[in-house]
Amino acid sequence: MWNKTGHQGNQWNRAVVPLRKFRNFQVIFEGIRSTDLSGGAALDDLEYIDCAPSAVPGSCPAVTDFVCQSGHCIESHLVCDNKADCADESDEMDCDHIFGSPGACNFNMEDGRWEQSCQLSQDTDDDFDWRISHKTETEGGPQSDHSPDGEGNFLYIHSATQREGDVAKVTTTNPFPASIGLCHLRFWFFMYGSTRMGTLKVYTSGTSGTPLLVWATTGNHGNQWTYANIILSNTVDFSVTFQAEVGGDVWTDIALDDISYTAECMVGGPVTPQPLTCDAEQFQCAYSFQCIPKSWWCDGLPDCTDQSDEEHCPTALPGTVPPQGRCPAKNFQCSDNSCLPSILRCDGVFDCPDGEDEHSCPLLQCEPGELVCESWPGCIPLPMRCDRSLDCLPFHSDESSCHECPPMYCQDHGSCHIEENGPLCFCCFSSTEADLNQQIRQEAFLATSKPHFFLLLLIEIYGNKNLNNFCQKIAAI
């Protein structure tokens, strides 16, 4: 939350530390002794302002908060979301009305009625449809729904009969009124069974029909139902779409259950951006019209209601990988938001402005033609490159640039050529005939300065003229 180091003068210094909107928290003061034993630190006159030890009705951090029967406060968007946030679970009482909202559903009805009952519709421009059941056909999917007794149904995709990349979409039939930073979508999802899970995405679509991605997740989330709470914002009336994309094998079923929306989603709210009113030392949240201290920006903890203070952040620590998400697949995002083909990741050459593409890379010595991969226990062998199987996670460098040569790919004036397993660099050396003959006797191949790619060459050289002709032919390929 706050720290000071170094000599602060022979005087008492005043500090004011904002404590955010934390609930039920403790404050810990920690002093770390340096090697110099002559220094010290002292505290005096501690004061807490507007930090009531226990909340009672009328004294919650926000006027919109829900007051539990115990007197404690929780944020209103956590009420009736099928997850008890009050210690006495009073926030989940009298919630039967929540599934009467358009698009909200627990899917506990007959198979042929869920679209009408839930006010959801299968899209006609996707590859296959969602379905409901009390368990999936494969062991990788949920074997019970999210309800406490596990006796209900859930919505899911059956991936075993589909191709990798196939998409299924389901959309709310009735639009929600326009609002910014007010409407919360809550749901539970299940993604487990494979290291090659697909992707679950949530979109909003306005009157133009153009989808706006508001949330996405991928990967294995464990053998459990996982909670999600998303802010939905759109300047026009909008519908909500859940899209599931099939993963790389038959164990990539994706399921949804207990979808609900907050009351603010039904009434809408102001959509005209308010003028900036934050001080110079504050950060203006993008959609929720809040001001927070600049020190809270990109500190790893979301403070804006819309979480915009944690978006598009630079590298948090020197030597770590920058935040990703703005570049296409099979690309690496540098800290300046430029995109590199991921084949350049962990290749021993700094391609990002600050060399971030070489951060957090394994210390491996790979043979020419092999890839250094951060998720692989060893080196990716040459035959596994460009074989249409994503082996090197998370950037898929083994399937990157299979049909093109990245800019400045070959070092030391090498010539790039596309082969079956991706780009190769041809390197021709300029030297005397005696030196070349000696070099060829010592080495059976000519390698690039990047250790990934090589071409085995067995050459009998009779003179520099023959070598120059050979290099010209190679460069012309």
Which CATH architecture of the domain at 98-267 is right?
Sandwich
CATH topology of the domain at 98-267: Jelly Rolls
How far is the N terminus from the C terminus?
Answer: 60 Å
Average pLDDT score? 81
Strand content: 15-25%
Largest sheet descriptor: 5 strands, antiparallel
Q: Report helical residue fraction.
A: under 10%
| Content-based structural category | mainly beta
> C-alpha Rg, in Å?
29 Å
**Outline type:** globular
Overall strand count = 22
- Order of strands across the main sheet: 3-6-11-8-9
Helix segment count?
4
List unreliable stretches of 5+ residues. Answer: 54-58, 436-468, 473-477
User: What pattern of helices and strands is seen along the backbone?
Assistant: EEHEEEEEEEEEEHEEEEEEEEHEEH
* CATH class category name of the domain at 98-267: Mainly Beta
Question: How would you describe what is shown here?
Answer:
- It is a single chain.
- This protein is mainly beta.
- The chain has helices spanning 114-118, 264-267, 433-442, 464-476; strands at 66-67, 73-74, 120-122, 131-133, 154-157, 167-172, 179-191, 199-205, 211-218, 226-234, 239-245, 254-261, 282-284, 291-293, 331-333, 339-341, 371-372, 379-380, 415-419, 422-426, 445-447, 454-456.
- It has a five-stranded antiparallel β-sheet with strand order 3-6-11-8-9. A five-stranded antiparallel β-sheet has the order 4-5-12-7-10.
- The radius of gyration is 29 Å and the shape is globular.
- Mean pLDDT is 81; it is low at 54-58, 436-468 and 473-477.
- InterPro entries: ConA-like_dom_sf (IPR013320), LDL_receptor-like_sf (IPR036055), LDLR_class-A_CS (IPR023415), LDrepeatLR_classA_rpt (IPR002172), MAM_dom (IPR000998), MAM_domain-containing (IPR051560).
- Residues 134-153 are annotated as: Disordered.
